[in-house]
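Researcher: Quick sanity check before group meeting.
Model: Go ahead. Protein one:
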Amino acid sequence: MQQKLSAHGFINRFKNNSVAKWTTLIIVVLVGAAGIFSIGVGVGSGRISFSTLESQNEDLPAALDYSSVTQVYNQLKANYDGKLDQTKLLDGMKAGLVNAAGDPYTEYFDAKSASDFNSQLSGTFSGIGAELGQDSQNNLVIIAPIDGTPASKAGLKPQDIITEVNGKSTTGMSVDQAVTKIRGDKGTKVTLKVIRDKSQTLTFTITRDDIKVPSVKSEILDDNIGYIKINQFGDDTGDLAAKVAQEFKDKGVKGVVLDMRGNPGGLLTAAVDVSSLWLDQGQTILQEKRGGTVVSTETATGNNILKGVLTAVLIDEGSASASEITAGALHDNNVATLFGVKSYGKGSVQQVVKLPNGTEMKVTIARWYRPNGQNIDKKGITPENIVKMTADDYKAGNDLQKNAALKFIQDK
């Protein structure tokens, strides 16, 4: 069975012979499970099969010559002073092969990692509540702490660089390895040393906990302005957001603030459903390209309950993948104005392939593009209304970004 992803987000369960697209492939350290927040175009859509995509590696041989690998194995077996484990050796060889692609989002999961990966996709985790990724220098970074989790309460911020986990340097450490070290049982502690803003060194000792992350929160604020906060794009997000949208419409809100700050992504179907609340049926939400060729176009469903409602969208450096797809779709189709700071920049598409004995491989198969034709990978989306916040603002609860979005609607 194969699963298709396009960057950050999660899928709770998969149907047989289904293809699921995701838009977020950032490893999560939520409640201890190693996982990804990615957005997918729909479980069981089956519109693009991994096996039918044209390969860009036709020049490679049909099979690798493993004679040199066997030599290494024989020498290790004969000379290593210790007990070797056959399963670990095989998993290590497979992981090395996949890692050689040089893509942080193409990854091999052994059976344990695959199990952790899938168990976390239900939205319930055991750990600290933060998504991890890698920057262009291969530093381990906090993508976003989830609201209300131990990571958020401790004060971790997006783009914090993790330099040590429990006193061990993260140099050369993969995201998956870091997740394994950071995750743990409820009530246990983990100590992280981070560098913030390339200058400040901070140490956090965080108590792990069980966390259920609600995907949607909402309220109607003063001046009859609807506020909807989407923390992740899960399999219930589309329905929950539609219910909120209908409530807003019934109460005749003056405008809507859509807050996707710190949202690492989720199912592509959810991003399409949320974007469709503002868009006419058939309007483009994103395109997927492989080697410059368009392989898929996602369009609005027509359930545009909030069509014509004045809307401000909040994004920040913790907004990734599905969040960026939604923000880009609403902005490029001229139905929303963006506030905050530049988003994370995750514009590639991954697919999860089931392998024997409970193992899995996550592999980049395409890139996604905004309606305006831009790919945001490593670039992000820059709001037309840039509003920065200092550490003092966060500490004092002075939400300048949200206030700016509210004022935008109030002044209309």
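Researcher: Fine. The other one?
Model: Protein two, sequence then structure:
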Amino acid sequence: MKHFQRVTDQPLEQYRYERKFLVERMDDRQIRTLIMMHPAMFVMPYPPRWVNNIYLDTPQLDNYTENVSGAVDRCKVRLRWYHQLFEESSPAVLEFKIKHGLVGKKLQYQVDPFKLDTQFNRKYMERYFEVSDLPFEVKQKLKGQMPVLVNRYQRWYFATRDGRFRVTVDSDMVYYHVGLLENAFRYRHEERLLKVVELKYQQADDLLASRIAGALPFTVYKNSKYVYGMDCVYW
């Protein structure tokens, strides 16, 4: 079992910023060109790939409510893997994405591959975590959490040469409703027109980040993909 980080509190300076921008009426190639022409001289450190997520929440949707209300301390819980969606996954990562005000951190744990198909439901997820090699305190945190949303998007990666600033571009986003008992994943929302750009950096670089963000001709976006997806497939 690989522990990326332990579930313990971290000093605030270890949190990072994520500035999000919403891009409309611009295709992927135009966005990539603008980023590559940025004065910060971004490069592409990795090839693009498909990102898949299963979001977990309580039956009362406490995580959703905290994020909608803008609570100072809020959390999102998700299972993330890459490439194929409905075939057996590559090794997945369980993430607790914790926000404190405008900064955040991730607590991550590698878990075994699984298969997303019509047998997937709340009971499947509970059994999957029960037999996993997760620490006891993590399993306790997962009690009362159930799968509520699946989403998928293509992500492009950019970074400054010193690695202090990273930009991701997410497009071709699809959101799937998750039922309690069975799932054919037919109830979904496809978002082909909107793209989400994120600028990520450490708190110490906030001043310079303002200059970098100012050179990006995009609209600031405050909502998360989780909130947006829930609004699309549930309400």
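Researcher: One line on it for the slide.
Model: Strands lie at 16-23, 49-57, 73-82, 92-100, 103-111, 146-159, 166-177, 188-191, 195-202, 219-220.
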